[in-house]
Amino acid sequence: QVQLQESGPGLVTPSQTLSLTCTVSGGSIATEAYAWSWIRQPPGKGLEWMGVVAWDGMTFYSPSLQSRTSISRDTRKNEFYLQLNSVTPEDTAVYYCAAQYGSSLYEGQGTQVTVSS
Predict the structure, then answer these.
(1) At residue 63, what are phi and psi to the nearest 5 degrees?
(2) How far apart are the first and last CA of the chain?
(3) Is residue 79 a contact partner of residue 7, using CB atoms and an 8 Å limit?
(4) Strand 59-61 to 48-54 pairing
(5) What is the SS3 assignment for 45?
(6) At a CB cut-off of 8 Å and minimum separation 6, what does 67 contact?
(7) Helix and strand numbers, DSSP H then E, in the chain
């Protein structure tokens, strides 16, 4: 079974770049038909899908975040990454990485990121 673990700094200064890593075990991120996503949940709000890197490396982003978001991967390390530029306190959230394969969905435990000076 695929397992995911998010890692990265818990505190980011406004205007800086938020960078997170998702380490995957139990399966390869290059396996055909898998999609690897980043999702976040601000305090008191619902889940927000941010973007995805597919098994073949193609990326797609939420239109509302596309100008500030970059998702990449390293197949040798079996990791994928999130970069969110020019953060503000409104980017404070629990950030999750997730994998989808057909009707199966796997999620990490999430990591709290606070944007504050």
Answers:
(1) -55, -35
(2) 39
(3) no
(4) antiparallel
(5) coil
(6) none
(7) 0, 11
Q: How many residues appear in the chain?
A: 117
What 3-state class would DSSP assign to 15?
coil
pLDDT, tens only, 43-94: 999 999 999 999 999 999 999 999 999 999 999 999 999 999 999 999 999 9
Residue indicated by tokens 């990121």: 113
User: 67: exposed, middle or buried (C-beta count within 10 Å: 0-12, 13-18, 19+)?
Assistant: exposed
Beta-carbon contacts of 78 under 8 Å, excluding residues fewer than 6 positions away, are 23, 24, 25, 28, 29
With CA atoms as reference, report the closest residue to 97 among 112, 113, 81, 85. 81
